[in-house]
């Protein structure tokens, strides 16, 4: 008889915004955006009330305001989010040492063997959700399955405050009904490429031979072949060390005007900074990735002696890297930013930082 892992993916609901609404009763029931301002910047997190208007994380503030004129902007308080995250992880540790944090508000748990002798992963997930609510006043969504890919999909399925289970016998049938644009690990650009190939759902993806997927998507093609069948052998890794954090954007037309390129670059840089903050990591190396219209690709990098803990310093480096590719010889089709040589905030305690904590 086959044996399966018991994996739980816990994802806090609109974490930053929910903390702000918890701590400020005047914000409850109202559309809230954390990060940026009404004049400039990027939304780091949006409350569910704001999401009803189409406001999303990584969206430029001006776009968010157009969608929701009554949107309330709140400055982020990462020290508070970090403290709440520690409370949540203390709850996780009551059930298993096999915890793989993905960010301040998200983690995988392997409860195949758990510390409380509870028979089912579903029972553990339900208890964890209840304890998080009691201890923090916040809600979490949980996905339960036999691998990480399906547990992640399940946690998104009935947000907010959801609990959804995908059993081994249900996996293939469940995946075949999903739109590929909703698959964890398939971004917007990849989804659009799949759509041009006639691939819209998990069922469509499963019909593709692995050789064809590798031809069009490189090494990632083998991963797409596996997840179309609900397969994922990755273990929960409590010692997981992230090597880099990045984001990029491919443009519908090649861009040549400096102002237009900078308007695209700053939301990308803001998204990378937001991801680093969420993951509680700071980098020493900033890399700018540029792909031209003829698919020539170049990178420019700069490494600091100390981890970059101050966003204005990080942004000045990005601008210097961008200026280093000027004047432009041809149009640009893609820009990307990444942070590497990462350190966690806990590792930085006691060191000289670029920002006081």
From TrEMBL:
**Protein's job:** Poorly processive, error-prone DNA polymerase involved in untargeted mutagenesis. Copies undamaged DNA at stalled replication forks, which arise in vivo from mismatched or misaligned primer ends. These misaligned primers can be extended by PolIV. Exhibits no 3'-5' exonuclease (proofreading) activity. May be involved in translesional synthesis, in conjunction with the beta clamp from PolIII.
One annotated GO molecular function is: DNA-directed DNA polymerase activity
Organism, by scientific name, is Siphonobacter aquaeclarae
As for subcellular location, the record says: Cytoplasm
* Protein name, UniProt field: DNA polymerase IV
Q: Which UniProt keywords apply?
A: Cytoplasm, DNA damage, DNA repair, DNA replication, DNA-binding, DNA-directed DNA polymerase, Magnesium, Metal-binding, Mutator protein, Nucleotidyltransferase, Transferase
The record's family statement is: Belongs to the DNA polymerase type-Y family.
Q: Name one GO biological process term.
A: SOS response
Q: Catalytic activity, per the record? A: DNA(n) + a 2'-deoxyribonucleoside 5'-triphosphate = DNA(n+1) + diphosphate
Q: Which cofactor does it need?
A: Mg(2+)
SUPFAM superfamilies (UniProt xref): DNA/RNA polymerases (SSF56672), Lesion bypass DNA polymerase (Y-family), little finger domain (SSF100879)
Q: Which residues form the signal peptide?
A: none
| NCBIfam families hit by this protein | PRK02406.1
Q: Which PROSITE patterns does the record cross-reference, listed alphabetically?
A: UMUC
Subunit record text: Monomer.
Task: Spell out the CDD domains in the cross-references.
Answer: PolY_Pol_IV_kappa
What does the cofactor section's free text say about binding? Answer: Binds 2 magnesium ions per subunit.
Can you tell me which residues bind Mg(2+)?
11, 105
Which residue numbers mark the site Substrate discrimination? 16
Which domain of life does the protein's organism represent?
A: Bacteria
The cellular component terms of Gene Ontology attached to this UniProt record, alphabetical and capped at eight, are: cytosol
Listed EC numbers: 2.7.7.7
- Stretches assigned to the UmuC domain: 7-187
Write down the PANTHER family for this protein, in alphabetical order: DNA POLYMERASE KAPPA, DNA REPAIR POLYMERASE UMUC / TRANSFERASE FAMILY MEMBER
In this protein, the active site sits at 106
